[in-house]
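Exercise 7.
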Amino acid sequence: MQAVLEDAVAADEAVVGVVCNDANGLCLGRAGDTYGCRAAFLTSLVRRASLLDDEHMGSPMIVIESADKKMLLREYDSLTVAIMRKEAEEE
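Solution. The predicted structure, written as tokens, is:
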């Protein structure tokens, strides 16, 4: 799995990090600039967000933005995937 995550970071220069957690929040792999040992809160965040809309089936896409980065979070089957992207520089 580590090779897949590293390839995801290398394939797109805007991607600065990727984290993959299991259903319990255990980090299965990470590559690039990530939250490391604090990755379990990402799984919890996705689970809580899914409770906001009872009618929607499936996991929501969560986007957290800062001045220089954007984090995309989503649960796929029982895995939580977080992708950290740097914001596009304005010319």
